[in-house]
Write a structure and sequence with these properties.
The complex is a heterodimer.
Chain A lengths: L1 H12 L4 H13 L4 H21 L5 H18 L5 H4 L3 E7 L7 H12 L2 E5 L6 H11 L3 E5 L7 H12 L7 E5 L5 H7 L3 E2 L3 H11 L2
Helix pairs in contact in A: 1-2, 1-3, 2-4, 3-4, 4-6, 6-10, 7-8
Chain B lengths: L3 H9 L15 H9 L4 H4 E7 L6 E8 L1 H5 L22 E5 L3 E5 L5 E5 L13 E4 L5 H8 L16 H9 L7 E5 L1 H9 L1 H10 L1 H26 L5 E5 L12 H21 L5 E5 L7 H6 L4 E4 L8 H8 L4 E3 L4 H6 L1 H18 L2 E2 L12 H12 L6
Parallel strand pairs in B: 7-8, 8-9, 9-10, 10-11, 11-12
Antiparallel strand pairs in B: 1-2, 3-4, 4-5, 5-6
The chains are: A alpha/beta, B alpha/beta.
Protein backbone atom coordinates (compact mmCIF):
# COMPACT_ATOMS: atom_id res chain seq x y z
CA UNK A 1 0.00 0.00 0.00
CA UNK A 2 2.74 2.41 0.98
CA UNK A 3 4.49 1.81 -2.33
CA UNK A 4 1.66 3.00 -4.51
CA UNK A 5 0.93 5.96 -2.25
CA UNK A 6 4.59 6.91 -2.40
CA UNK A 7 4.46 6.63 -6.16
CA UNK A 8 1.39 8.88 -6.32
CA UNK A 9 3.14 11.35 -4.05
CA UNK A 10 6.32 11.37 -6.11
CA UNK A 11 4.37 11.62 -9.38
CA UNK A 12 2.75 14.83 -8.12
CA UNK A 13 6.00 16.08 -6.60
CA UNK A 14 8.01 15.38 -9.76
CA UNK A 15 5.29 16.63 -12.12
CA UNK A 16 4.94 13.18 -13.65
CA UNK A 17 1.94 14.07 -15.75
CA UNK A 18 -1.79 13.63 -15.63
CA UNK A 19 -2.08 10.30 -17.45
CA UNK A 20 0.40 8.58 -15.15
CA UNK A 21 -1.31 9.99 -12.09
CA UNK A 22 -4.72 8.78 -13.27
CA UNK A 23 -3.29 5.32 -13.80
CA UNK A 24 -1.78 5.23 -10.32
CA UNK A 25 -4.93 6.52 -8.63
CA UNK A 26 -7.04 3.96 -10.44
CA UNK A 27 -4.61 1.21 -9.44
CA UNK A 28 -4.74 2.33 -5.82
CA UNK A 29 -8.53 2.32 -5.91
CA UNK A 30 -8.62 -1.14 -7.44
CA UNK A 31 -6.30 -2.36 -4.68
CA UNK A 32 -8.86 -1.21 -2.13
CA UNK A 33 -6.68 1.46 -0.59
CA UNK A 34 -8.85 3.85 1.44
CA UNK A 35 -9.77 6.88 -0.62
CA UNK A 36 -8.77 9.24 2.14
CA UNK A 37 -5.28 7.75 2.24
CA UNK A 38 -4.93 8.24 -1.52
CA UNK A 39 -5.90 11.87 -1.08
CA UNK A 40 -3.91 12.71 2.03
CA UNK A 41 -0.87 10.45 1.86
CA UNK A 42 -0.58 10.43 -1.91
CA UNK A 43 -1.92 13.48 -3.70
CA UNK A 44 -1.80 16.17 -1.03
CA UNK A 45 1.51 14.95 0.38
CA UNK A 46 2.87 15.30 -3.14
CA UNK A 47 1.52 18.82 -3.35
CA UNK A 48 3.25 19.69 -0.09
CA UNK A 49 6.50 18.44 -1.62
CA UNK A 50 5.84 20.72 -4.59
CA UNK A 51 5.37 23.62 -2.15
CA UNK A 52 8.66 22.79 -0.46
CA UNK A 53 10.42 22.73 -3.82
CA UNK A 54 8.87 26.10 -4.64
CA UNK A 55 10.07 27.59 -1.37
CA UNK A 56 13.52 26.11 -1.99
CA UNK A 57 13.70 27.79 -5.42
CA UNK A 58 13.61 24.52 -7.33
CA UNK A 59 10.09 25.07 -8.67
CA UNK A 60 8.43 28.26 -9.92
CA UNK A 61 4.93 29.40 -10.75
CA UNK A 62 4.54 27.20 -13.82
CA UNK A 63 5.37 24.09 -11.78
CA UNK A 64 2.97 25.10 -8.98
CA UNK A 65 0.13 25.60 -11.41
CA UNK A 66 0.81 22.36 -13.22
CA UNK A 67 0.95 20.37 -9.98
CA UNK A 68 -2.32 21.90 -8.79
CA UNK A 69 -3.86 21.18 -12.17
CA UNK A 70 -2.91 17.46 -12.35
CA UNK A 71 -3.98 17.03 -8.75
CA UNK A 72 -7.32 18.60 -9.51
CA UNK A 73 -7.81 16.24 -12.45
CA UNK A 74 -6.96 13.24 -10.28
CA UNK A 75 -9.42 14.44 -7.66
CA UNK A 76 -12.18 14.24 -10.24
CA UNK A 77 -11.77 10.43 -10.25
CA UNK A 78 -11.92 10.33 -6.50
CA UNK A 79 -14.63 12.88 -5.89
CA UNK A 80 -17.62 10.54 -6.31
CA UNK A 81 -16.20 8.27 -3.62
CA UNK A 82 -15.51 10.97 -1.08
CA UNK A 83 -17.91 12.90 1.10
CA UNK A 84 -17.86 16.69 0.81
CA UNK A 85 -16.57 16.84 4.35
CA UNK A 86 -13.67 14.58 3.54
CA UNK A 87 -12.90 16.51 0.36
CA UNK A 88 -12.34 19.64 2.36
CA UNK A 89 -10.87 18.37 5.58
CA UNK A 90 -8.37 21.16 5.87
CA UNK A 91 -10.87 23.93 6.55
CA UNK A 92 -12.88 26.67 4.88
CA UNK A 93 -11.57 29.89 3.43
CA UNK A 94 -13.50 32.96 2.33
CA UNK A 95 -11.40 34.89 -0.14
CA UNK A 96 -11.43 38.13 -2.07
CA UNK A 97 -9.48 41.16 -3.30
CA UNK A 98 -10.32 44.29 -1.34
CA UNK A 99 -12.35 47.23 -2.65
CA UNK A 100 -10.55 49.42 -5.14
CA UNK A 101 -8.27 46.65 -6.37
CA UNK A 102 -9.11 44.58 -9.46
CA UNK A 103 -6.06 42.28 -9.38
CA UNK A 104 -6.77 38.60 -9.21
CA UNK A 105 -3.84 36.53 -10.47
CA UNK A 106 -2.18 35.96 -7.10
CA UNK A 107 -5.53 35.39 -5.42
CA UNK A 108 -6.53 32.85 -8.06
CA UNK A 109 -3.26 30.97 -7.72
CA UNK A 110 -3.73 30.83 -3.95
CA UNK A 111 -7.30 29.58 -4.49
CA UNK A 112 -6.07 26.77 -6.74
CA UNK A 113 -3.36 25.76 -4.31
CA UNK A 114 -5.65 25.95 -1.27
CA UNK A 115 -8.30 23.91 -3.06
CA UNK A 116 -5.75 21.31 -4.01
CA UNK A 117 -4.54 21.25 -0.41
CA UNK A 118 -8.03 20.33 0.76
CA UNK A 119 -9.52 23.66 1.73
CA UNK A 120 -13.00 24.60 0.67
CA UNK A 121 -12.59 28.06 -0.84
CA UNK A 122 -15.35 30.54 -1.51
CA UNK A 123 -14.01 33.27 -3.77
CA UNK A 124 -15.79 36.64 -3.72
CA UNK A 125 -13.68 37.81 -6.68
CA UNK A 126 -12.15 41.31 -6.79
CA UNK A 127 -13.07 44.82 -5.66
CA UNK A 128 -15.11 43.43 -2.78
CA UNK A 129 -16.89 45.90 -0.53
CA UNK A 130 -16.04 45.55 3.17
CA UNK A 131 -19.73 45.03 3.99
CA UNK A 132 -19.75 41.97 1.73
CA UNK A 133 -16.75 40.45 3.51
CA UNK A 134 -18.50 40.94 6.85
CA UNK A 135 -21.88 39.73 5.65
CA UNK A 136 -20.42 36.60 4.03
CA UNK A 137 -18.23 35.89 7.04
CA UNK A 138 -21.29 35.98 9.29
CA UNK A 139 -23.30 33.87 6.93
CA UNK A 140 -20.83 31.16 5.99
CA UNK A 141 -18.63 31.17 9.11
CA UNK A 142 -15.34 30.31 7.39
CA UNK A 143 -12.23 29.42 9.38
CA UNK A 144 -10.15 31.95 7.50
CA UNK A 145 -10.86 35.18 5.71
CA UNK A 146 -8.24 35.78 3.01
CA UNK A 147 -7.83 39.40 1.94
CA UNK A 148 -5.76 40.06 -1.14
CA UNK A 149 -4.32 43.45 -2.08
CA UNK A 150 -1.80 44.35 -4.75
CA UNK A 151 -2.22 48.11 -4.87
CA UNK A 152 -0.65 50.10 -2.08
CA UNK A 153 -3.43 52.64 -2.59
CA UNK A 154 -6.00 49.98 -1.64
CA UNK A 155 -4.17 48.84 1.51
CA UNK A 156 -6.27 51.01 3.86
CA UNK A 157 -9.27 48.91 2.80
CA UNK A 158 -7.82 45.98 4.74
CA UNK A 159 -7.99 47.97 7.95
CA UNK A 160 -11.56 48.98 7.12
CA UNK A 161 -12.57 45.32 6.76
CA UNK A 162 -10.80 44.29 9.96
CA UNK A 163 -12.38 47.13 11.94
CA UNK A 164 -15.82 46.14 10.68
CA UNK A 165 -15.20 42.50 11.62
CA UNK A 166 -14.15 43.64 15.10
CA UNK A 167 -17.29 45.72 15.42
CA UNK A 168 -19.38 42.76 14.30
CA UNK A 169 -17.63 40.70 17.02
CA UNK A 170 -16.89 37.74 14.76
CA UNK A 171 -13.12 37.61 15.16
CA UNK A 172 -13.44 34.86 17.76
CA UNK A 173 -13.99 32.21 15.08
CA UNK A 174 -12.34 33.94 12.16
CA UNK A 175 -8.65 34.14 11.36
CA UNK A 176 -7.50 36.78 8.91
CA UNK A 177 -4.84 36.00 6.35
CA UNK A 178 -3.44 38.74 4.11
CA UNK A 179 -1.80 38.27 0.72
CA UNK A 180 -0.75 40.25 -2.34
CA UNK A 181 2.22 42.28 -3.37
CA UNK A 182 1.34 45.32 -1.28
CA UNK A 183 1.15 43.34 1.93
CA UNK A 184 3.99 42.85 4.39
CA UNK A 185 4.17 40.96 7.66
CA UNK A 186 4.76 44.22 9.47
CA UNK A 187 1.60 45.66 7.95
CA UNK A 188 -0.35 42.57 9.03
CA UNK A 189 0.76 43.11 12.62
CA UNK A 190 -0.12 46.79 12.47
CA UNK A 191 -3.67 46.20 11.30
CA UNK A 192 -4.31 43.21 13.56
CA UNK A 193 -4.44 40.44 10.95
CA UNK A 194 -3.43 36.95 12.04
CA UNK A 195 -0.87 36.38 9.29
CA UNK A 196 0.45 37.63 5.96
CA UNK A 197 1.64 35.40 3.15
CA UNK A 198 4.31 36.49 0.71
CA UNK A 199 3.25 33.91 -1.88
CA UNK A 200 0.59 31.27 -2.52
CA UNK A 201 2.59 28.40 -1.04
CA UNK A 202 3.24 30.27 2.17
CA UNK A 203 -0.44 31.20 2.18
CA UNK A 204 -1.45 27.54 2.16
CA UNK A 205 1.10 26.68 4.86
CA UNK A 206 -0.11 29.53 7.03
CA UNK A 207 -3.71 28.49 6.47
CA UNK A 208 -2.91 25.01 7.73
CA UNK A 209 -1.42 26.55 10.86
CA UNK A 210 -4.30 28.93 11.40
CA UNK A 211 -6.94 26.19 11.44
CA UNK A 212 -5.06 23.86 13.78
CA UNK B 1 28.44 69.17 -20.22
CA UNK B 2 26.89 65.99 -21.59
CA UNK B 3 23.38 65.89 -22.99
CA UNK B 4 20.96 63.53 -21.21
CA UNK B 5 21.20 61.25 -24.24
CA UNK B 6 25.00 61.09 -24.08
CA UNK B 7 24.82 60.51 -20.35
CA UNK B 8 22.44 57.59 -20.81
CA UNK B 9 24.50 56.05 -23.58
CA UNK B 10 27.70 56.33 -21.59
CA UNK B 11 26.13 54.94 -18.42
CA UNK B 12 24.71 51.96 -20.32
CA UNK B 13 28.16 51.36 -21.85
CA UNK B 14 29.99 51.65 -18.52
CA UNK B 15 31.85 54.70 -19.79
CA UNK B 16 32.50 57.85 -17.72
CA UNK B 17 29.65 60.30 -17.16
CA UNK B 18 29.66 63.85 -15.80
CA UNK B 19 26.56 62.97 -13.75
CA UNK B 20 24.46 59.90 -13.18
CA UNK B 21 21.48 59.90 -15.53
CA UNK B 22 18.17 60.03 -13.66
CA UNK B 23 15.13 58.49 -15.36
CA UNK B 24 11.52 58.25 -14.20
CA UNK B 25 8.16 57.47 -15.74
CA UNK B 26 4.82 58.51 -14.34
CA UNK B 27 1.37 56.94 -14.20
CA UNK B 28 -1.30 59.20 -15.65
CA UNK B 29 -3.09 59.11 -12.30
CA UNK B 30 0.04 60.44 -10.61
CA UNK B 31 0.25 63.33 -13.06
CA UNK B 32 -3.40 64.15 -12.34
CA UNK B 33 -2.69 64.12 -8.65
CA UNK B 34 0.35 66.34 -9.02
CA UNK B 35 -1.66 68.86 -11.03
CA UNK B 36 -4.45 68.86 -8.45
CA UNK B 37 -1.82 69.51 -5.78
CA UNK B 38 -0.28 72.48 -7.49
CA UNK B 39 1.98 71.33 -10.31
CA UNK B 40 1.44 74.10 -12.87
CA UNK B 41 -0.43 72.50 -15.78
CA UNK B 42 0.47 75.33 -18.14
CA UNK B 43 4.17 74.64 -17.60
CA UNK B 44 3.93 70.95 -18.42
CA UNK B 45 1.37 71.04 -21.23
CA UNK B 46 2.79 70.14 -24.61
CA UNK B 47 1.07 71.85 -27.52
CA UNK B 48 1.89 71.64 -31.19
CA UNK B 49 0.58 73.28 -34.35
CA UNK B 50 -0.81 70.49 -36.44
CA UNK B 51 -3.10 69.92 -39.33
CA UNK B 52 -5.91 68.13 -37.57
CA UNK B 53 -8.83 66.23 -38.98
CA UNK B 54 -10.13 66.90 -42.45
CA UNK B 55 -9.69 70.66 -42.68
CA UNK B 56 -6.82 72.41 -44.37
CA UNK B 57 -6.16 74.25 -41.18
CA UNK B 58 -3.25 74.35 -38.78
CA UNK B 59 -4.50 74.30 -35.24
CA UNK B 60 -2.82 74.12 -31.82
CA UNK B 61 -3.30 70.60 -30.51
CA UNK B 62 -2.78 69.33 -26.99
CA UNK B 63 -0.22 66.50 -27.12
CA UNK B 64 0.12 65.62 -23.44
CA UNK B 65 2.02 66.54 -20.29
CA UNK B 66 5.79 66.65 -20.11
CA UNK B 67 6.40 65.99 -16.44
CA UNK B 68 9.97 64.84 -17.00
CA UNK B 69 11.20 68.20 -18.24
CA UNK B 70 9.53 69.85 -15.27
CA UNK B 71 11.47 67.68 -12.82
CA UNK B 72 14.54 67.51 -15.10
CA UNK B 73 14.59 63.73 -15.34
CA UNK B 74 14.80 61.49 -18.41
CA UNK B 75 11.74 59.90 -19.92
CA UNK B 76 12.48 56.44 -21.34
CA UNK B 77 9.65 56.78 -23.78
CA UNK B 78 10.44 60.31 -24.93
CA UNK B 79 11.66 59.19 -28.34
CA UNK B 80 10.48 55.92 -29.82
CA UNK B 81 11.22 54.45 -33.20
CA UNK B 82 7.77 54.25 -34.81
CA UNK B 83 7.32 50.55 -35.53
CA UNK B 84 3.91 49.14 -34.67
CA UNK B 85 4.47 45.67 -33.22
CA UNK B 86 0.94 45.23 -31.89
CA UNK B 87 -1.71 43.08 -33.61
CA UNK B 88 -2.88 44.53 -36.92
CA UNK B 89 -5.72 44.99 -37.31
CA UNK B 90 -6.47 45.71 -33.68
CA UNK B 91 -9.63 44.35 -32.20
CA UNK B 92 -12.19 47.12 -32.14
CA UNK B 93 -12.26 48.28 -28.54
CA UNK B 94 -15.86 48.40 -27.46
CA UNK B 95 -18.19 47.99 -24.54
CA UNK B 96 -19.84 44.58 -24.45
CA UNK B 97 -21.85 44.83 -21.27
CA UNK B 98 -22.42 46.57 -17.98
CA UNK B 99 -24.06 46.29 -14.62
CA UNK B 100 -24.51 48.77 -11.80
CA UNK B 101 -20.81 48.82 -10.89
CA UNK B 102 -18.82 47.69 -13.90
CA UNK B 103 -18.51 47.89 -17.64
CA UNK B 104 -17.12 45.04 -19.73
CA UNK B 105 -14.96 45.71 -22.74
CA UNK B 106 -13.15 43.93 -25.53
CA UNK B 107 -9.74 45.55 -25.58
CA UNK B 108 -7.59 46.17 -28.66
CA UNK B 109 -5.55 43.06 -27.84
CA UNK B 110 -8.71 40.94 -27.91
CA UNK B 111 -8.72 40.41 -24.13
CA UNK B 112 -11.96 40.98 -22.25
CA UNK B 113 -11.95 43.14 -19.17
CA UNK B 114 -14.15 44.45 -16.41
CA UNK B 115 -13.64 48.04 -15.39
CA UNK B 116 -15.17 50.05 -12.56
CA UNK B 117 -17.69 52.47 -14.05
CA UNK B 118 -16.31 55.96 -14.43
CA UNK B 119 -17.88 58.35 -11.98
CA UNK B 120 -19.26 55.57 -9.81
CA UNK B 121 -16.32 55.92 -7.48
CA UNK B 122 -13.14 57.88 -6.98
CA UNK B 123 -11.39 56.12 -9.81
CA UNK B 124 -10.09 56.89 -13.28
CA UNK B 125 -9.96 55.13 -16.60
CA UNK B 126 -6.39 54.21 -15.81
CA UNK B 127 -7.40 52.15 -12.74
CA UNK B 128 -6.33 48.61 -13.61
CA UNK B 129 -9.12 46.53 -15.14
CA UNK B 130 -9.72 42.88 -14.35
CA UNK B 131 -8.79 40.76 -17.36
CA UNK B 132 -11.17 37.83 -17.37
CA UNK B 133 -10.62 36.30 -20.78
CA UNK B 134 -7.78 36.20 -23.27
CA UNK B 135 -7.68 35.83 -27.04
CA UNK B 136 -5.45 32.74 -27.19
CA UNK B 137 -6.25 29.50 -25.40
CA UNK B 138 -5.21 26.73 -27.78
CA UNK B 139 -3.74 26.01 -31.21
CA UNK B 140 -6.88 26.99 -33.06
CA UNK B 141 -7.19 30.40 -31.41
CA UNK B 142 -3.43 30.94 -31.78
CA UNK B 143 -3.51 30.16 -35.51
CA UNK B 144 -6.32 32.64 -35.89
CA UNK B 145 -4.59 35.33 -33.81
CA UNK B 146 -1.32 34.86 -35.68
CA UNK B 147 -2.97 36.37 -38.76
CA UNK B 148 -2.79 39.70 -36.95
CA UNK B 149 0.93 39.31 -36.35
CA UNK B 150 2.11 39.56 -39.91
CA UNK B 151 5.47 41.36 -39.88
CA UNK B 152 5.13 42.31 -43.54
CA UNK B 153 1.97 44.34 -43.02
CA UNK B 154 2.80 47.81 -44.41
CA UNK B 155 0.79 49.43 -41.61
CA UNK B 156 3.60 48.57 -39.19
CA UNK B 157 5.45 51.69 -40.36
CA UNK B 158 4.12 55.26 -40.56
CA UNK B 159 2.58 56.43 -43.82
CA UNK B 160 5.42 58.90 -44.21
CA UNK B 161 8.12 56.34 -43.42
CA UNK B 162 11.42 57.47 -44.84
CA UNK B 163 14.38 56.21 -42.80
CA UNK B 164 16.67 59.11 -43.69
CA UNK B 165 14.09 61.74 -42.82
CA UNK B 166 13.26 59.93 -39.59
CA UNK B 167 16.96 59.66 -38.70
CA UNK B 168 17.25 63.42 -39.04
CA UNK B 169 14.22 64.05 -36.86
CA UNK B 170 15.36 61.56 -34.24
CA UNK B 171 18.77 63.19 -34.18
CA UNK B 172 17.24 66.39 -32.89
CA UNK B 173 16.19 64.60 -29.73
CA UNK B 174 18.87 64.79 -27.04
CA UNK B 175 16.67 64.78 -23.91
CA UNK B 176 17.07 61.04 -23.50
CA UNK B 177 17.66 57.81 -25.39
CA UNK B 178 15.95 56.78 -28.62
CA UNK B 179 14.17 53.52 -27.99
CA UNK B 180 13.02 50.67 -30.09
CA UNK B 181 10.41 48.71 -28.21
CA UNK B 182 10.20 44.93 -28.27
CA UNK B 183 8.12 42.49 -26.29
CA UNK B 184 9.96 39.50 -24.90
CA UNK B 185 8.38 36.11 -25.48
CA UNK B 186 7.23 35.70 -21.89
CA UNK B 187 5.47 39.07 -21.95
CA UNK B 188 4.04 38.27 -25.37
CA UNK B 189 2.57 34.92 -24.32
CA UNK B 190 1.28 36.14 -20.96
CA UNK B 191 -0.46 39.04 -22.68
CA UNK B 192 -2.16 36.74 -25.19
CA UNK B 193 -3.09 33.87 -22.86
CA UNK B 194 -3.07 35.33 -19.34
CA UNK B 195 -0.35 34.40 -16.88
CA UNK B 196 -1.89 31.19 -15.43
CA UNK B 197 -2.85 29.65 -18.78
CA UNK B 198 0.41 30.64 -20.44
CA UNK B 199 2.45 29.14 -17.60
CA UNK B 200 0.39 25.97 -17.61
CA UNK B 201 0.83 25.58 -21.36
CA UNK B 202 4.60 25.05 -20.93
CA UNK B 203 3.63 21.70 -19.38
CA UNK B 204 0.23 20.94 -20.85
CA UNK B 205 0.73 22.07 -24.43
CA UNK B 206 4.44 22.50 -25.17
CA UNK B 207 3.79 22.31 -28.92
CA UNK B 208 1.66 25.43 -28.67
CA UNK B 209 4.46 27.22 -26.80
CA UNK B 210 6.99 26.13 -29.43
CA UNK B 211 4.77 27.37 -32.23
CA UNK B 212 4.20 30.70 -30.48
CA UNK B 213 7.90 31.14 -29.72
CA UNK B 214 8.92 30.42 -33.32
CA UNK B 215 6.44 32.93 -34.65
CA UNK B 216 7.40 35.48 -31.99
CA UNK B 217 11.03 35.29 -33.13
CA UNK B 218 10.14 35.64 -36.81
CA UNK B 219 7.67 38.44 -36.12
CA UNK B 220 10.01 40.39 -33.81
CA UNK B 221 12.95 40.29 -36.21
CA UNK B 222 11.07 40.86 -39.44
CA UNK B 223 8.71 43.58 -38.22
CA UNK B 224 11.61 45.65 -36.92
CA UNK B 225 14.21 44.73 -39.54
CA UNK B 226 13.77 47.80 -41.70
CA UNK B 227 14.00 50.20 -38.76
CA UNK B 228 16.93 48.34 -37.19
CA UNK B 229 18.94 48.22 -40.39
CA UNK B 230 18.18 51.80 -41.38
CA UNK B 231 18.43 53.46 -37.97
CA UNK B 232 21.02 51.28 -36.27
CA UNK B 233 23.32 54.21 -35.59
CA UNK B 234 20.48 56.18 -34.06
CA UNK B 235 18.78 53.54 -31.87
CA UNK B 236 20.28 53.95 -28.41
CA UNK B 237 18.60 51.04 -26.74
CA UNK B 238 16.03 48.30 -27.01
CA UNK B 239 13.29 48.40 -24.41
CA UNK B 240 12.49 44.72 -23.94
CA UNK B 241 9.21 44.43 -22.06
CA UNK B 242 8.95 41.12 -20.26
CA UNK B 243 7.34 41.32 -16.80
CA UNK B 244 8.17 37.73 -16.02
CA UNK B 245 8.54 37.64 -12.26
CA UNK B 246 6.83 38.33 -8.96
CA UNK B 247 8.11 38.79 -5.45
CA UNK B 248 9.02 35.15 -4.89
CA UNK B 249 10.88 34.71 -8.17
CA UNK B 250 10.46 34.32 -11.92
CA UNK B 251 7.21 32.82 -13.15
CA UNK B 252 9.06 30.29 -15.24
CA UNK B 253 11.98 28.22 -14.09
CA UNK B 254 15.51 28.42 -15.49
CA UNK B 255 14.82 24.98 -16.99
CA UNK B 256 11.81 26.22 -18.98
CA UNK B 257 13.61 29.45 -19.92
CA UNK B 258 16.47 27.41 -21.31
CA UNK B 259 14.27 24.92 -23.09
CA UNK B 260 11.72 27.26 -24.66
CA UNK B 261 13.08 30.81 -24.73
CA UNK B 262 16.84 30.91 -24.85
CA UNK B 263 17.58 29.94 -28.45
CA UNK B 264 14.88 32.28 -29.81
CA UNK B 265 16.16 35.14 -27.67
CA UNK B 266 19.71 34.56 -28.84
CA UNK B 267 18.65 34.80 -32.45
CA UNK B 268 16.73 38.05 -31.87
CA UNK B 269 19.55 39.66 -29.87
CA UNK B 270 22.04 38.28 -32.41
CA UNK B 271 20.16 40.12 -35.15
CA UNK B 272 20.35 43.33 -33.08
CA UNK B 273 24.04 42.84 -32.27
CA UNK B 274 24.80 42.26 -35.95
CA UNK B 275 23.43 45.76 -36.47
CA UNK B 276 25.60 47.11 -33.65
CA UNK B 277 22.69 47.51 -31.24
CA UNK B 278 24.03 46.19 -27.97
CA UNK B 279 22.03 47.99 -25.30
CA UNK B 280 19.05 45.77 -24.63
CA UNK B 281 17.21 46.51 -21.39
CA UNK B 282 14.72 44.06 -19.92
CA UNK B 283 11.75 45.55 -18.11
CA UNK B 284 10.56 43.12 -15.50
CA UNK B 285 9.19 43.69 -12.06
CA UNK B 286 9.74 41.10 -9.36
CA UNK B 287 12.66 38.94 -8.39
CA UNK B 288 14.37 37.83 -11.59
CA UNK B 289 17.59 36.65 -9.92
CA UNK B 290 17.14 32.90 -10.49
CA UNK B 291 17.08 33.40 -14.27
CA UNK B 292 19.51 36.30 -14.63
CA UNK B 293 22.42 34.16 -15.80
CA UNK B 294 20.25 32.89 -18.63
CA UNK B 295 18.87 36.36 -19.33
CA UNK B 296 22.42 37.57 -19.84
CA UNK B 297 23.27 34.53 -21.94
CA UNK B 298 20.21 35.40 -24.05
CA UNK B 299 21.82 38.71 -24.92
CA UNK B 300 20.02 41.09 -22.56
CA UNK B 301 22.46 43.73 -21.31
CA UNK B 302 20.40 45.88 -18.95
CA UNK B 303 17.64 45.55 -16.37
CA UNK B 304 14.93 47.84 -14.98
CA UNK B 305 13.29 48.54 -12.51
CA UNK B 306 14.84 46.20 -9.88
CA UNK B 307 12.13 46.17 -7.23
CA UNK B 308 13.50 46.35 -3.72
CA UNK B 309 10.30 44.76 -2.42
CA UNK B 310 11.28 41.65 -4.39
CA UNK B 311 14.80 41.47 -3.01
CA UNK B 312 16.63 43.17 -5.89
CA UNK B 313 19.66 45.29 -4.95
CA UNK B 314 21.86 47.13 -7.46
CA UNK B 315 24.94 46.83 -5.27
CA UNK B 316 24.71 43.05 -5.07
CA UNK B 317 23.82 42.70 -8.74
CA UNK B 318 26.80 44.81 -9.78
CA UNK B 319 29.12 42.69 -7.65
CA UNK B 320 27.68 39.50 -9.09
CA UNK B 321 27.38 40.46 -12.74
CA UNK B 322 30.07 43.09 -13.16
CA UNK B 323 29.86 44.92 -16.46
CA UNK B 324 27.59 42.37 -18.06
CA UNK B 325 24.40 44.16 -16.99
CA UNK B 326 23.68 47.87 -16.77
CA UNK B 327 21.22 48.58 -14.00
CA UNK B 328 18.38 51.06 -13.87
CA UNK B 329 16.16 52.06 -10.94
CA UNK B 330 16.16 50.24 -7.59
CA UNK B 331 15.44 53.27 -5.39
CA UNK B 332 12.79 51.88 -3.06
CA UNK B 333 9.53 53.66 -3.90
CA UNK B 334 8.21 53.00 -0.40
CA UNK B 335 11.16 54.72 1.31
CA UNK B 336 11.31 57.55 -1.21
CA UNK B 337 7.58 58.22 -0.81
CA UNK B 338 8.10 58.71 2.93
CA UNK B 339 10.24 61.77 2.22
CA UNK B 340 12.67 63.23 4.78
CA UNK B 341 15.36 61.04 6.26
CA UNK B 342 14.13 57.69 4.90
CA UNK B 343 14.21 59.19 1.38
CA UNK B 344 17.68 60.64 1.86
CA UNK B 345 18.98 57.40 3.40
CA UNK B 346 17.76 55.37 0.43
CA UNK B 347 19.50 57.68 -2.06
CA UNK B 348 22.68 58.02 0.02
CA UNK B 349 22.99 54.27 0.47
CA UNK B 350 23.00 53.58 -3.27
CA UNK B 351 24.06 56.51 -5.43
CA UNK B 352 27.63 56.98 -4.16
CA UNK B 353 28.37 53.26 -4.46
CA UNK B 354 26.85 53.04 -7.92
CA UNK B 355 28.78 56.08 -9.13
CA UNK B 356 31.91 54.16 -8.25
CA UNK B 357 30.74 50.95 -9.82
CA UNK B 358 29.33 52.51 -13.00
CA UNK B 359 26.73 51.24 -15.45
CA UNK B 360 23.88 52.72 -13.44
CA UNK B 361 20.90 54.93 -14.21
CA UNK B 362 19.21 56.30 -11.08
CA UNK B 363 15.46 56.08 -10.60
CA UNK B 364 12.63 54.57 -8.62
CA UNK B 365 12.10 50.82 -8.64
CA UNK B 366 8.84 51.26 -10.53
CA UNK B 367 6.80 53.90 -12.32
CA UNK B 368 5.93 56.83 -10.07
CA UNK B 369 2.68 55.71 -8.48
CA UNK B 370 -0.23 57.74 -7.25
CA UNK B 371 0.76 57.44 -3.61
CA UNK B 372 3.39 60.11 -4.17
CA UNK B 373 2.21 63.61 -3.35
CA UNK B 374 3.48 66.40 -5.55
CA UNK B 375 5.30 67.83 -2.54
CA UNK B 376 7.05 64.51 -1.76
CA UNK B 377 8.11 63.95 -5.34
CA UNK B 378 9.45 67.48 -5.56
CA UNK B 379 11.37 66.94 -2.34
CA UNK B 380 12.83 63.74 -3.81
CA UNK B 381 13.66 65.48 -7.11
CA UNK B 382 15.34 68.39 -5.35
CA UNK B 383 17.45 66.04 -3.24
CA UNK B 384 18.48 63.52 -5.88
CA UNK B 385 19.57 66.28 -8.26
CA UNK B 386 22.16 67.37 -5.70
CA UNK B 387 23.58 63.83 -5.64
CA UNK B 388 23.95 62.99 -9.32
CA UNK B 389 27.10 64.89 -10.17
CA UNK B 390 30.23 62.80 -10.66
CA UNK B 391 33.46 64.46 -9.50
Amino acid sequence: MADILDEIRSTVANLGGSARLHELVNTALSQGIPVLDIVEKGLRAGLQDVGSKYEAGEYFLAELLFAASILDEAMQIIKPRLSAQAMHRSGRILLGTVRGDMHDIGKNIFRMMANAAGFEVQDLNVDVDPEIFVQQSKQTKPDILGLSCLLTTALPEIKVVIDMLDQAKIRSYLKILLGGNAVTKEFAREVGADAAALDAVEGVDLSRGLVK
Amino acid sequence: MMTPRERMRNAMDFRPVDALPWAENFYVETVNRFISEGMPADQISVMDWRMEGSLLLNWPAFIGFDVNSYFECINFFGCMVPVDVAPIPRFKQRKIGEDSKYEQFIMESGARTRIVKKGSRDTTWYAMPQFYSFPVSDKKSWDSYKERLNPEDPRRYPKDWDPEAYAEVLDQYQAGPTLLSMTGFYGFGAELMGIPNFNLAFYKDPELIKSMAAHWEYFTVESTREAVEALKDRIDMIFWWEDMAERHGPNISPKLYKEFLLSHYKRVTGFLNKNKINRIMMDSDGNTKPVLDLVIEAGITGHWPLEVNSGMDVRDLRKQYGNRLFLVGNLDKREIAKGGQPMRNEIDSKLPVMKEMGGYVAGLDHLVHVEFTFQRFREYADYIKTKLSVE
